[in-house]
Amino acid sequence: MKVLANDGISKSGILALEKGGFEVITTKVAQEQVANFVNDNNIDVVLVRSATKVRQDIIDACPGLKIIGRGGVGMDNIDVDYAKSKGIHVINTPASSSESVAELVFAHLFSGVRFLHDSNRNMPLEGDTNFDGLKKAYANGIELRGKTLGIVGIGRIGQATAKMALGLGMKVIAADSFIPKVAIKVEFFDGQSITTTIVSQSLESVFKEADFITLHVPAQDGYIISEKELAIMKDGVGIVNCARGGVIDEVALVKALDSGKVLFAGLDVFESEPTPEMAILMNHKISLTPHIGAATGEAQDRIGTELASQIISLLK
């Protein structure tokens, strides 16, 4: 049987699949050629990440397809229900990248409270001529310890983020329509651990109480944060989105950044991805990364081996 890993797969995933008797093809096929490639090469399994879309047209055109796999959590680039209605298995790896995404959230938080994203732009330009001026400009840092982190969506990634926040000594509050409460276990290097319970509260109360807000939700039909929500937040709030583009109104966000209502934002995903708006890219109050939440070697190894395990159990 053949597997097309069109958006790539880790070496460990390839080895696990090959050991299970599968041929793995990592040729990058253009979106419009996927269906033809699948049929011409008798592909049984298509694996994607966020780049390749597997919509109804591909599903209809590829009757021999047995599994569609998503290396990661969100499956908004796959017509999941339609694929299942055609007897195709749809799999993903919801737990494999949680820690990697959570660490990126904190990379953006630390960058924002200490102005690292902006100082790293300006030090090469002015560090030798305006050192004292830059020192003054970036002198009003903020500690995360003791502050309140509001988590919107307390699923696996939200929980991993909560653990890191608790480890830093932050207060954690959360809003989630589907999870009324969750036990968060923070484990330490020596085998000790502590467990605390987070009870979901209203989205409005999270927005009002949080010093920093991080989003961990799937793609939405509308905005979770727009001008109305920004208005009820604390002055000087920090906002991080490492979930999905389109859940924050970027025009309203830029306006709030310019007015000082929002101190900084950290964005890994964008409304118009993969071509973010220039007003976002050039704003010195936004810490930017190009959708790399799950892009660590450890996460990709876990994703590859987990996909391999699911494929082997389904088809062997």
TrEMBL record:
Classification via Pfam families: 2-Hacid_dh, 2-Hacid_dh_C
GO MF term (any one): oxidoreductase activity, acting on the CH-OH group of donors, NAD or NADP as acceptor
Domain D-isomer specific 2-hydroxyacid dehydrogenase NAD-binding: 107-293
InterPro entries named in the record: D-iso_2-hydroxyacid_DH_PdxB, D-isomer_2_OHA_DH_cat_dom, D-isomer_DH_NAD-bd, NAD(P)-bd_dom_sf
CDD domains found in the cross-reference section: PGDH_2
Residue stretches in coiled coil: none
Domain D-isomer specific 2-hydroxyacid dehydrogenase catalytic as annotated: residue spans: 9-315
UniProt keyword list: NAD, Oxidoreductase
Keyword NAD belongs to the record: yes
Family of the protein in this entry: Belongs to the D-isomer specific 2-hydroxyacid dehydrogenase family.
Official protein name in the record: D-2-hydroxyacid dehydrogenase
